[in-house]
């Protein structure tokens, strides 16, 4: 599918009654949700990487109090954390996207990953498997997410991650996966400030950001740097309610976290030869001319910011 055609279709759906449901149906039949198992397994691999990063940063999932930004249609990360022994997982979304059929499918698919979860969290697989089976049974009898997880997973939507009612210094970790690239830059700053407030001293903020052009996933004729050809004004033609892309570069997220006061303890920013070659072969809009190629070309990053142990926010 041509990327411009998808952009126009999504823009139209974002402005008509019933557009959100129509978009979901299209995703189920023709988009990323058509092959749910493959999509789910990719998310679980992302979760595995996050669990490893958190463990190395001194915040293992077992026993942790976690806050996810961007729940999406089904709660893969919160459910995996629950199975791994998390004490609390609050997950929020600006809009209520969660779908009961996908929630049940997510819980069922976790049965194929109990060994992975057990190893990542350092707990017996039997314990993980028992929780997973209980989760499936409770969801099948139409329990909501909180009831199905004994109150461990709390789903809150609509909710604003930059303005929560969570008490200060309450959590061990705030995290997101492929979310911040869809957030207005000013709101990114607000989310980081709120994370600083709600994290306990020594707590961490982990974000995995896919900051490449997402239209490249549906149009093989373009690459993940394609959107750098356009000015902000031009790009607004293709931005829409279902696929807003802020086009922030990887280093900008880290710089903004540092500006709020986080100490960066993980930064996977890396200029890859393939991306550098793609960048050299295409025109780039002058508004990006001040960014060195080795930073402009980066299309993904994982980073961790730690709240200083002695710091107490007002």
Name the features:
transferase, globular, Class I SAM-dependent methyltransferase, SAM-dependent_MTases_sf, methyltransferase activity, 314 residues, Methyltransf_11
Percent helix among the residues?
A: 40-55%
Radius of gyration: 20 Å
Question: Biggest sheet, in brief?
Answer: 7 strands, mixed
**Total number of strands:** 7
Oligomer: single chain
Structural class by secondary-structure content = alpha/beta
How much β-strand is present in the residues? Answer: 5-15%
Averaged pLDDT: 93
InterPro entries: Methyltransf_11, SAM-dependent_MTases_sf
Domain Methyltransferase type: 157-206
Pfam families: Methyltransf_11 (PF08241)
Protein name: Class I SAM-dependent methyltransferase
List the helices and strands and how they pair.
Layout: H1 3-13, H2 19-29, H3 36-56, E1 65-69, H4 76-83, E2 88-92, H5 100-109, H6 114-121, H7 125-140, H8 145-148, E3 153-156, E4 171-177, H9 185-198, E5 199-209, H10 232-235, H11 250-260, E6 263-267, H12 273-280, H13 293-296, E7 301-306
Parallel strand pairs: 1-2, 1-4, 2-3, 4-5
Antiparallel strand pairs: 5-7, 6-7
Keywords: Methyltransferase, Transferase
GO biological process, one term: methylation
GO molecular function: methyltransferase activity
Short description:
Pfam families: Methyltransf_11. The chain has 314 residues and is α/β, with parallel strands linked by helices.
Plain-language structure description:
By secondary structure, the protein is α/β, with parallel strands linked by helices. Helix content is 41%, strand content 14%. It has 13 helices and 7 strands. The protein has helices at 3-13, 19-29, 36-56, 76-83, 100-109, 114-121, 125-140, 145-148, 185-198, 232-235, 250-260, 273-280, 293-296; strands at 65-69, 88-92, 153-156, 171-177, 199-209, 263-267, 301-306. Strands 3-2-1-4-5-7-6 form a 7-stranded mixed sheet, with helices on both faces. Strand 1, helix 4 and strand 2 form a beta-alpha-beta unit. Helix 5 packs antiparallel against helix 7 (125-140) and helix 6 packs across helix 7. It is globular and about 55 Å long. The termini are far apart. The mean pLDDT is 93.
């Amino acid at each position: 599918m041509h990327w411009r055609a998808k952009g126009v279709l999504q823009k139209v759906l974002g402005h008509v009654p019933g557009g959100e449901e129509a978009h979901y149906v299209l995703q189920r039949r023709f988009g990323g949700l058509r092959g749910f198992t493959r999509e789910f397994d990719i998310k679980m691999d992302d979760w595995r990487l996050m669990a490893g990063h958190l463990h190395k940063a001194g915040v293992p999932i077992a026993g942790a109090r976690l806050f996810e930004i961007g729940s999406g249609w089904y709660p893969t990360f919160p459910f995996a954390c629950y199975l791994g022994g998390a004490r609390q997982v609050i997950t929020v979304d600006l809009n209520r996207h969660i779908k009961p059929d996908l929630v049940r499918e997510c819980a069922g698919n976790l049965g194929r990953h109990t060994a992975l979860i057990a190893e990542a969290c350092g707990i017996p697989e039997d314990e993980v498997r028992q929780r997973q089976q209980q989760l499936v049974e409770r969801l099948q009898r139409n329990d909501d997410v909180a009831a199905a997880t004994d109150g461990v997973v709390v789903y809150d939507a609509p909710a604003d991650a930059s303005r929560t009612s969570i008490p200060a210094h309450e959590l061990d970790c705030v995290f997101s996966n492929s979310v911040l690239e869809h957030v207005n830059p000013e709101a990114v700053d607000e989310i980081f400030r709120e994370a600083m407030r709600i994290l306990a001293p020594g707590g961490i903020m982990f974000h995995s950001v896919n900051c490449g052009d997402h239209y490249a996933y549906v149009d093989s004729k373009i690459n993940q740097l394609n959107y750098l050809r356009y000015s902000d004004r031009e790009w607004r033609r293709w931005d829409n309610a279902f696929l807003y892309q802020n086009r922030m570069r990887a280093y900008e997220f880290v710089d903004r976290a540092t500006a709020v006061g986080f100490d960066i303890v993980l930064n996977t920013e890396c200029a890859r030869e393939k991306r550098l070659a793609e960048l050299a072969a295409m025109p780039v809009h002058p508004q990006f001319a001040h960014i060195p190629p080795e930073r402009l070309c980066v299309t993904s990053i994982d980073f961790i910011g730690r709240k200083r142990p002695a710091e107490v926010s007002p």
